Amino acid sequence: MACEQDKTSETLPPTKIVVAAVIFNQEKDAVLVGLRAKDDANFPLEWEFIGGKVEPGEEYNTAIVRELMEELKIEVTPVKVLAVLPNFAGNKQFQIHFIGCNPVGEIVLDGNLVAHEKVEWVKLEELSKLNFIGCDGEFAQGLVAGKYVF
User: Fold this and answer.
1) Is the CB of residue 114 less than 8 Å from the CB of residue 25?
2) CA–CA separation, 50 vs 72, rounded Å?
3) Which whole-number Å values give the CA distances from 79 to 4, 82, 98, 103, in the listed order?
4) pLDDT tens, residue by residue, 62-84
5) Which residues, in sequence order, are CB contacts of 65 under 8 Å at separation 6+?
6) What is the DSSP string of 87-112?
7) 122 to each of 20, 55, 98, 138, 150, how far by Cα in Å?
8) pTM for this model (two decimals)
9) Which H, E and C letters describe 21-80, residue by residue?
């Protein structure tokens, strides 16, 4: 997946809206990221900020709360949109809304994962070592550089 449109594409289908949670742990100076499952059809073993597609008529904040409950069984409170970045994958066009979220209570990762091989707290200075999906990598670089703050 690339952040820039493939110049050879003639027409793209409508943009799919995706939300991605940015959950920061101050004590660990780290953010929560997930490694996609090895049997993932699109992005096996690539890192991402956890989230998913917004359903028709769904609010972005509702979508991020739903996605994190479905994938990790954790509850969050969305705080604000930190960035909106375009993504292109083949003939698919996405718009990713990176949303800063606060956890409701303590986050307990029990290893019972739906779409990920693993989910970890990763220190900001370590983010650049990970192989992120498309614009998640661009966002991670901006996060490390202090471009995105909440």
Assistant:
1) no
2) 9
3) 28, 9, 11, 10
4) 999 999 999 999 999 999 999 99
5) 75, 76, 78
6) EEETTEEEEEEEEEEEESS-----S-
7) 16, 29, 17, 16, 17
8) 0.88
9) EEEEECCCCEEEEEEECCCCCCCCCCEECCEEECCCCCCHHHHHHHHHHHHHCCCEEEEE
Residue with structure tokens 């993932």? 40
Query: pLDDT tens across 32-51, in order?
Result: 999 998 988 778 899 999 99
In the structure encoding, which two tokens stand for residue 143, read together?
């996060």
Dihedral sign computed on CA atoms, order 87, 111, 131, 36:
negative
CB distance 102 to 77 below 8 Å: yes
Q: Distance between CA atoms of 12 and 98, rounded to whole angstroms?
A: 22
Residue ranges and CATH numbers for the domains of the chain are 17-144 (3.90.79.10)
Q: Take residue 100 and report the two structure tokens written for it.
A: 């800063």
**Which residue is associated with the tokens 């110049």?**
7
| Tokens linked to 96 | 């990713």
